[in-house]
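User: Sorry, what's this?
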Amino acid sequence: MPITVGFVSLGCAKNLLDTEVMLKHLVDAGYAITSDETEADVVIINTCAFIDSAKSEAIENILDIAWLKENRDLKGIVVTGCLAERFRDEIFTELPEVDALLGVGSIHEIVSAVEAAYRGKRYSLYLDKNEVKLGGERVVTTPEYTAYLKVGEGCDNRCTYCAIPDIRGRFRSRPIEELVEEAKNLESIGVKELNIIAQDTSRYGLDLYGEYSLAELVRAITKETEIPWIRLMYCYPDKITDDLVEEFKNNPRLLKYIDLPIQHIDDTVLRRMNRHGGRAVIEDAIKRLREAVPDITIRSTAIVGFPGETDEQFETLCEFIKTVRFDHFGAFKYSREEGTPAAEFEDQIAEEVKEDRHAILMQTQNAVVEEKNEEKIGLSFTVLCEGYDPMQKIYYGRRKSDAPDIDAKVYFTAARAIAEGEFVEVRIHEALEYDLVGEAITDSEE
């Protein structure tokens, strides 16, 4: 009987791809994989540790899995990812249930870690995170019609609130040829939506080619594949080149969608965050994108309660959200992360103030979304079907303007069976708080 391994993958899609690479190593080594942790001999928990809530989620998962060691047949727990990297000196002491630790530079050694954990031997390995081989074969765990392509690792931005550069290392890009080959492989297994990601996707290529090369990469993938939907995530306002704007304008397969985190709009706050480019840069990036592609969907995020944020600065952010009318927007409460410069700032904001500001900002955005959704009633959109809810007797999926897992859904009825991964035209007849409801347009109507 082969050793059976279970996986818990936490955090962002970038972390998920590391999980998929580790899965491939284990499959190649003859291990059995299960989605049911109660059946596993060893469970791997690939963790996030970006903010306090992510750390708490990771620890809760470790403790939940540890119960299986006491009450079932689980023999070992392996912890990988950001929590393992960031708290390497504390985990064995604080969480003695853990048997093996792998830093982010050591994911390709997952087989050795699992073997040690299975045999009850304590194991840890922290190879240089800046030298780890990027990419690699993987077991794709997303539905067959959608997948992520990680084009780089690490981050060079050094925002004062963020621990990612210390956890993940400097930014390193993968060669265009390697990424095109991976995109072709994904297309061969049925992928119709390719989501391009990195910690800072818009920085892609600077280290390899001496210039921002994201647009060139998109052109190469477009030329060498027929994947109909190509989506860009995690792009920064100061790196939106004219070349990239033109690619949005002229490439029909590059979705008119961009994830553009701003984090704030007040120049003083942005400087203290060490964000590269102030309000003028943010407004210019949005202006150039919307002028070139009037119907482009822009997703963004902001942080409230950053140390020293005044009521006036927060109000400036709220007014900007009302004016700019992002299609999708998320707010985060500032998390005081040890080891970051902002954690040492003296003018920390009280938690109740953060809570209030978060609620107000999201209420502001909700009003924008409600107005935008009402405008969609009576219109038709191409929807990528993601499944069918037998309880509600309704299909669901996403438009081009909705990224997987983070954006809205379209719920729709249909006169015929619709397959997962099928594109279908849907006419909208109802707007919910975030989602839309409609009906598939039949062939006779088209």
